[in-house]
Design goal:
- The chain is an alpha+beta fold and 176 residues long.
- The protein is 27% helix and 35% strand.
- It is built from four helices and eight strands.
- It has an eight-stranded mixed sheet, with helices on both faces.
- The longest helix has 17 residues.
- The radius of gyration is 15 Å and the shape is globular.
- It starts with 8 loop residues before the first strand and ends with a strand.
- It binds acetyl coenzyme *A and zinc ion.
């Protein structure tokens, strides 16, 4: 299915349930903050979400199912050393945080949010590649990213506050 980059888009999940992907709006703030707190140890103050919404509105995606917000993907675009073309600078999409509530997992929601978010970073904010950090123990997320064409580009020792290392994973956006 062609993924739209403007407006709400309805999808049929693998189990027949329907969900909608759309841009984050301010009314979603408390739901997104609560999903983030439920599914990840890395939590941020409200202003951090608001700032990403203000700066990169088209690339802050939420998923709604049965009238409930069940997932979000928040992104930004940065300029710096490329993970793909070593020694060159690039506009890099940065997947800051993605999460889906447990009862809505394995339905393809994260996959479709990732595709929309990556395409939006390329189309609206000139991103040439995309990267993210992920805990080395986070097998579900690492599998998701590998399936989407990401490769491990580096490892940051003790990146997380509990001492765990992060992988940096990256992919080009040239083919997307
Ligand atoms: N075990 C193994 N592989 C998995 C798992 C799992 N538990 N979950 C997803 N995958 C892989 C599978 O290959 C899956 O395809 P399949 O279901 O056909 O086998 C593929 O990823 C796509 O899965 P989706 O259904 O699109 O992913 P989902 O909507 O369930 O969300 C996510 C995945 C976001 C990782 C979810 O499990 C979650 O919210 N986890 C907790 C929060 C988290 O870890 N976020 C990422 C942190 S890193 C960062 O934010 C940059
Ligand atoms: Zn990051």
């Amino acid at each position: 299915m062609e993924i739209l980059l403007e407006g709400p888009q309805e999808f049929a999940a693998k189990d027949g349930r329907r969900y909608v992907l759309r841009e984050f709006r301010m009314a979603d703030l408390s739901s997104v903050v609560s999903i983030n707190r439920r599914v990840l140890p890395e939590n941020y103050p409200e202003w951090f979400f608001v700032e990403h919404h203000m700066s990169f509105p088209k690339a802050f995606i939420v998923a709604e199912m049965g009238g409930e917000l069940v997932g979000y993907m928040m992104n930004r675009v940065e300029y710096g050393w490329s993970y793909i073309n070593k020694g060159k600078a690039a506009h890099k999409g940065h997947v800051v945080s993605i999460g889906v509530l447990p009862h809505a997992r394995r339905l393809g929601i994260a996959t479709n949010m990732m595709i929309r978010g990556m395409k939006a970073m390329k189309k609206f904010y000139e991103a040439e590649e995309v990267f993210l950090e992920v805990r080395v123990s986070n097998t579900p997320a690492i599998s998701l990213y590998k399936k989407l064409g990401y490769e491990i580009a580096g490892r940051i020792p003790r990146y997380y506050s509990d001492g765990e290392d992060a992988y940096i994973m990256a992919r080009t956006l040239a083919d997307l």
